[in-house]
Amino acid sequence: MGKFEYTQENLRKLQLVELEMLKELDMICRKNNIKYIIDSGTLLGAVRHGGFIPWDDDVDVSMLREDYDKFCRVCKTDLDKKYFLQTHKTDKGYRWEYARILKNGTVYIRKDHEELKSRNGIFIDIFPRDNVPENGMGYHFCNSLSWLCRKMLYSEVGEHHANGTWNKVGFAFLNLFPKSLAHKGVEYLVRKYKDIETEKVRSFGWGSRAETKGYRKEWCVDTCDIVFEGITVKAPVKTHEYLVHAFGEDYMTPPPEDKCQPIHTAKYIKF
User: Fold this and answer.
1) pTM, whole model, 2 decimals?
2) How confident is residue 264, by pLDDT bands cut at 50, 70 and 90?
3) What is the rounded CA–CA span in Å between residue 64 and residue 69?
């Protein structure tokens, strides 16, 4: 591994490779009538900056479970061979409960994730969203089991890089269990609420504050075109409502300059 410096030039090169993969995803989804939306900071960037947030280093997309499963199926035939659809089913070393489109021939090693045994490369994230109860015991059960599954999947990283000795010990203990237990836990939650009509959805394998609160299902169903870096992609019709939910009323105000840093600092990238 050669010397690597995470410069603004390299960040922009990374964004442009991710943009290629987003175009590929959009093409596949439009061809197969699959609904998706750009998500999180990607959607915020489209609205506030017309593309990437200048310091953002990833692309996030989400789909309802039915569309996500269909997308994974059609990628077997429709995904360009220069890319690889990465899930815990296509890559035995991959730990997460969401998919990635990964560009073959590239390398992306995230700082503090060096121990992971999965295939690596420049990627974009694709999150499935599943039905979730809005309140009561079911809501707390979902969040609790989802939290535990996420911690189990993160344990291979956490035992080396978590803050504090006891946190490292806790993650080391969780890492004694096979990650298949966490995947089965998420599969149980998906099955349990699949046929129940709910107004909210979430990704069970992810633990952000907005994810814990859940997202309105209509945001993934009622979509419209939006321009991102000069290409047309999909966003919620109620984009403002979504962004307030995810980032607060002042989402159009950029953070202080000292906070304008990439979230997932790369240790090494090969383009």
Assistant:
1) 0.94
2) confident
3) 9
CB environment 79-118: b (16+ within 10 A), e (fewer): beeebbbbbbebbeebbbbbbbbbbeebebbbeebeebeb
The contacts of residue 9 (CB under 8 Å, 6+ apart) are: none
pLDDT score of 35: 98
205's tokens: 């394998």
Whole-angstrom distance, CA of residue 256 vs CA of residue 250? 13
Please give the structure tokens belonging to residue 201: 């959805």
Q: Which of 13, 24, 65, 11 is nearest to 233 (CA)?
A: 24
Q: Locate 248 and state its tokens.
A: 């607060």
The full 3-state SS of the chain, as one line of letters, equals CCCCCCCHHHHHHHHHHHHHHHHHHHHHHHHCCCCCEECHHHHHHHHHHCCCCCCCCCCEEEEEHHHHHHHHHHHHHHCCCCEEEECCCCCCCCCCCCEEEEECCCEEEECCCCCCCCCCCCEEEEEEEEEECCCHHHHHHHHHHHHHHHHHHHHHHHHHHCCCHHHHHHHHHHCCCCHHHHHHHHHHHHHHHCCCCCCEEECCCCCCHHHHHCEECHHHHCEEEEEECCEEEEEECCHHHHHHHHHCCCCCCCCCHHHCCCCCCEEEEEC
Which tokens hold the place of 164? 């504090």
Take residue 24 and report the two structure tokens written for it.
Answer: 């590929």
Q: Per residue in 137-176, pLDDT tens?
A: 888 898 899 999 999 999 999 999 999 999 999 999 999 9
Which residues are paired to 225 by β-bridges?
234
For 6-21, the pLDDT digits (tens) are 788 999 999 999 999 9
